[in-house]
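job 3f2a | input accepted
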Amino acid sequence: MSLIATALLLLLPLCSGCGAQTRPPAPSPATASADAVEECADSVAYWVRYLLTPGSDTGLDYQEMGLSSGENDIVRTLLPATAATAKRQGLSLAQADALTQARPRCRAYLLALGPSPSAAGGWPQ
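job 3f2a | predicted structure (125 res):
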């Protein structure tokens, strides 16, 4: 038997456990998706409240706000209805209303993005 073959036979048992290393289970798509939806909805609700606060709109664009263009579209869509809520019931309820309305919109937005190797937020999108 050659020297290389003997060395391989000696090393094979040492490496038999190499491929069987335990790895933490990958997060389920439902969990990861729920986290991404909640992160999106939280960001949207925050910026809705910020933009509804009198005197707070300092002209930030969506990138300066840390939003994707899709998240910014959701913010802009929710502003008219939540503005009415803010006038009638205050900013806290308007933000809660925005959060409730943002979840299904964020879910649809994230599903439309499809699977990607990176997180849903960020630039460019």
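job 3f2a | Residues 5 and 11 are 10 Å apart (CA to CA).
job 3f2a | closed
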